[in-house]
Specification:
With about 260 residues, this protein is an alpha/beta fold. It has a single domain, classed as 2-enoyl-CoA Hydratase, Chain A, domain 1 (Alpha-Beta Complex), CATH 3.90.226.10. The chain is built from 10 helices and 9 strands. Helix 2 packs antiparallel against helix 9. The two termini are about 25 Å apart. It comes from Skermania pinensis.
Amino acid sequence: MFIRYQVADRIGTITLNRPEAANAQNGELLDQLDAAWQQAAADPDVAVVVLRAEGKHFSAGHDLKGSSPAESGPITLERIYQVEARRYLEYSLRWRNMPKPSIAAVQGRCIAGGLLLCWPCDLIIAADDAQFSDPVVMMGIGGVEYHGHTWELGARKAKEILFTGRPVTAEEARQTGMVNRVVARAELDERTRELAAQIAAMPPFGLRQAKRAVNQTLDVQGFYAAIQAVFDVHQTGHGNALSVSGFPILTQLAEMKNNIK
């Protein structure tokens, strides 16, 4: 199992448990993760959800080693679109709209697809060694599938990290508002659980209404429509990669991720 799910003191904890691969996301991991989110959403004993990860890194993003975005079968834009719409867009939106508060605890590297895991959470606590990046412009793609960059970082900072591929530090992310708190790496789990316990003590219906109010405000401003529209733009990058090279760039990106220590 790539995912662990535990409940204690009204806190549901979902743990990414593939540390030997820096918690890179294959299809099985994402399907198990979605199942855990749905279990937490339906569990009356859970008031708040914590998403955390085992090992040095939160997530190296999509597992590209020896695979393609289309997984098994022929690599076509139609197949890529189907797979990514379900696992990268629909899953992330479902986690974002779950009617219970959620907190992501992020340490080490959070690369590209890793953003699809923490951005849907209501709050993010980052260890002081956390780094957030999206280097997929090197693939000829304008950013990962759940394109929250502008909302999370602001337009100019979003452009900077996309244009350069450089990582954003935990403190830099806190200054933009993407991260709520930065804590010492050794205190990440403890401090996250303290915040979760504080939230879990609040009336559940009030929490749901507060979350709904904030999310709906963002949606009225265009968040949901923008996420859907940019996903389609993202697919044109895949189409270009297929027409030009048949995706050999995946091998280069996989090697880059394999070098994460």
